[in-house]
Amino acid sequence: MIDTLSLPAGNPLLTLTQPKLHLWIIELHHGQDNRLTQELINKAFMPALDAAERQWRIQVRTAQKNGDKEGSKGALIIIGKRDQDKFFSNGLDFANSLKDPNFFQHTFNPMMARMLTFPIPTIAAINGHCYAGGLMLSLVCDYRVMTDGSSRNAWLCMNEVHFGAPWPLSFTAVLTGKLGDHRLHRKIALEGHKFTPQEALQDGILDHIVKGKTADVLAKAEEVAERVGGNASMGVWGLIKSNIYFNTIKTIQKDIRLVNVAIDDAGARARL
């Protein structure tokens, strides 16, 4: 089992734990509001996904040898910093992401595709505000559990229209592949509506809302993980998702990469 893995070494931005044999938890703790940067995604989040999947697959092989179907269960929870109730993620560090012209193509989009095909159920435990890229991260999870906002206000919002940032093609692909109809797409993307948890539940963005603070949100996420984790036991969870979101993933991969020597060098230095 994984005890505690803090990434990246020397400047931890997240912690991966395995509190139960079949459960992995990624806790984001990048500053106060968990901005999704190149360093967080490339050097912490993606390696944490690899570590969790590797451990799950080891357990699957052991369970198969022992004829233990229960041993093949698994689920992953992603939660904002546990010692606060204000932020799940406030989205991208927009100014720094602009320094890498291929940020979406090389960093954010691969993360979204990875999550869309992850081989065990994924649950976003949204313990506070969930904005822009943070909302996209929650949407590529299989389930979303959120505080009801009764102890502290919490909003979900794609606010790019309000500060003049065009959407990458990948955002559009995830929105249309995951949610509702054109009216909801318009409300999210073109109006930049700030959803209360109650509104988001009614519109199908969330699966559950929970009265209470971060510990209560995490407890509900663990309940969901326990309920659906067995569906990973036959090894087809990720394969079926690859088919469900086939068009979404293909569209994500169509985001145009800007290619010339200077841009490639600048992008590489931003990631290193």
From TrEMBL:
Record GO cellular component, one term: peroxisome
InterPro entries tied to this protein: ClpP/crotonase-like_dom_sf, Enoyl-CoA_hyd/isom_CS, Enoyl-CoA_hydra/iso
Pfam families linked to this entry: ECH_1
Domain of life where this protein originates: Eukaryota
Family: Belongs to the enoyl-CoA hydratase/isomerase family.
PANTHER family, alphabetized: ENOYL-COA HYDRATASE-RELATED (PTHR11941), ENOYL-COA HYDRATASE_ISOMERASE FAMILY PROTEIN (PTHR11941:SF75)
Protein name, as recorded: ClpP/crotonase
Organism, scientific name: Agrocybe chaxingu
